[in-house]
Amino acid sequence: MAHRHGNRQRADTPLHSGTVQPAPPAHLAFASQRRVLVVDDSRMQRRILSTLLTRWGYAVQEAEGAREALDICVTDPPDVVLSDWMMPGMNGIEFCQLFRAIPRESYGYFILLTSKTSTKEIAAGLDAGADDYLAKPISPDELRARLAAGERILGIHAELVEKNRLVTETLGQISALYDSLDRDLQGARKLQQSLIKERHRSFGASQVSLLLRPSGHVGGDLVGFFSINADRVGLFAIDVSGHGVSSALMTARLAGFLSPTSPDQNLAMTEDDFGLYDAIPPAELAATLNRVAFTELDTEHYFTLAYADLDLTTGAFALVQAGHPHPMVLRASGAIEQIGEGGMPIGLVEEARFEQVTGQLRPGDRLFIMSDGLTEAMDSTGDMLGEDGLAALLRRNAEARGPGLLEALTWDLAEFTGASDFADDVSAVLFEFDGPKAMS
Asked: Is the dihedral of CA 270, 276, 279, 281 positive or negative?
C-alpha cells in the first residue's frame, strides 16, 4: 500500500524555541511543487529516502514494487521517480520501459538506484529510458545534486511545453486570420476581374480580346479598351510595379482614369465646346498620367503602359510605349514585327518624356500588346521565354482567333513553365483587323 508524506517535521527531530529553520537550497526552490515516487522493495530504504525528500520540501509517495508504482503513475503521475534496479517480479529497467509508455502531458524524470557500477549495465539502464542513476549506498549530497539536475530538465520541459502551447495557439489565430484574409482576397479578385467590363467585343469584321491572369489572388496588371468615337478605339495595357494588394489597389485607381463607361472621367478623352469627345494623342496621355502619378497618387509604385489609338476604318494607329514590352504586329503573311520606342515607366521620373509611333494594320493583321509576365516567364532550367519564344508561340497558334488564340497561348505558356500558376501576372490585348468597319 502506498504511503504519502507531506511537508512535516520528523517526530524524532527536536524543535528548539526561538530557532529558525534554514531555507532550502536555491536549486530546490521549487521542490514543494514536485511529487516524488520512491519505489523499493526495502521498507527501510524507502523510509530513508522519504525522510530526506520530505525534509527538502518534496511531496513523497512510496511503492514497494513496480506493479504498485505503475498504478500510481497512471492515476497520479509523479514528477520524479526514484526506483531500485533489483526488485522481485519486475526490475527497475522493465518498470522504466513501462513508465515511459504511459501517456502524460508533462515529463517524468526517472532515476535508477543501483549497486551496479559497470559501464555496460549503466548504459542499459539509460537506454531503457532512465534519465540518471545513483549508486548505492546513496549519498544525500549526491541525491540532492541529481534532483537539482532533474529540476532543471523538468523546468526546461515545462517551458518548452508552454512555448509549444503558445505557438499552437498563435498558429490557430494566424490560420483564422489567413482564412479571413483569403476570403477577403477572393472577393478582391472578383472585384479586380470586374474592372474588365468586357473581355471580347466585335467592331464589324474586327475584334478585340483581353487576357488577364493574376499570379496570386490579385495582381498589378490591367488591360482594357474604350471607344473614342464611332471609328476609333483605345487599347491599353498596364503593369504596376510589385504584386499583391497595394498593386491591385493601384490598378483599380488607374482603371478609373481610363474608364470605358465615363468619358468625362477618362484622362485619354477631351470634350470640345459642342460636347463631342475626342482622344488626346497617346504620348500626351502618358505625360498626363506621369504628372498625375506625382501630384495625385501618393504611392511608391510606378507602372508601365502601352496605349494605342486605332482607327477601325483604316487600320492606322498611334501608339506610346512607356516601359512596357514592345507590342507586336502579326502580319497576315506570318511575319511578326516589333513596334514602339521603349521609353520610361510612368511615375518613376517626373521629367520623363514619351515618344509616339505610328503604324498600319492591313486586313488579316493583328496587334498584340502583352505584359512582361509572358516574355519573362521561365522554364524549369531558368531560361526565359523571351520575345523570340513568344513569337514562336504566336506563329504556332496563328490559325486560332480571338479568345481561342489567347487561351491556346496560355496553355503553351503553362507547358513551357511547367506550372499552371505563373510566377508573374500575365495579361494581353489582341486586336484583329479584318478590314474597314462597315458603315451604319
From this structure: negative
Mean pLDDT of 345-358: 93
Interatomic CA distance for residues 413 and 419, integer angstroms: 9
Region 131-150 average pLDDT: 91
Question: pTM of the prediction?
Answer: 0.61
Mean per-residue pLDDT of the chain: 85
In whole angstroms, what is the distance from residue 419 CA to residue 429 CA?
Answer: 22
pLDDT the model gives residue 4 = 43
What are the DSSP E strand ranges found in 241-392? 269-271, 277-279, 303-311, 316-322, 328-330, 336-338, 356-360, 366-370
Give Cα 131 to chain centroid, integer Å. 40
Nine-digit cell string for 349: 521620373
Of 25, 56, 26, nearest to 38 by C-alpha is 56
* 131 in Cβ contact with 152 (< 8 Å): no
Tell me how far the alpha carbon of residue 421 is from its chain's centroid.
15
Q: Are 347 and 303 in contact (CB under 8 A)?
A: yes
Find cell 521561365 and name the residue.
378
